[in-house]
Write a structure and sequence with these properties.
The chain is 38% helix and 14% strand. It has 6 helices and 5 strands. Bound molecules: FE2/S2 (inorganic) cluster (2 copies).
Length: 178
Amino acid sequence: MTTQDSRHSVRNAAVVPDELNEVECTVNGARARFSVPPHRTLMDALRYQLDLTGTKTCCAEGECGACTVLVDGVGVNSCLMLAAEADGSTITTVEGLGLDTPSGLSDLQESFLEAGAVQCGFCIPGQVVAAEYLLRGNPSPTVEEIREGMSGNLCRCAGYQRIVAAVQMTARKRSHHD
Ligand code: FES
Ligand code: FES
């Protein structure tokens, strides 16, 4: 191949569009179908293709937890998961937690408000989803278990004590409903 041919093939490669992957999944109880390039993260697909902007984007490298969602019931950093990998899965974002309540807020979200745990609010969707995941696996966590279970969710406003209090408050509410 001549030098000119090589340049030509490199230029062509640069303009070939990414192949799209079809994704079909359940998001907050509804079926969703969308196409994504192979490298699009689940976080970006949720925010920019499904308009579910409650899931926040911050570090985009698995350090802050702002993008936490439930995938098949497991809390994941959606910035670290490819959207294509979500094909066939069931996803719950913060928008989906209180769907069956009159206020649209879950008991956990209400507790965050009651405990004064929401300051600037940026980290809160991820905190709430992470706390929901924690409580589903451990309905009566100790303070240490809450701190440990939510250690991947950072709060720049340092509202950790009130976040822990909100999770404890929810655990108490749920135990009274059992
Ligand atoms: S944006 Fe995903 S962990 Fe920070
Ligand atoms: S409430 Fe501001 S970052 Fe957590």
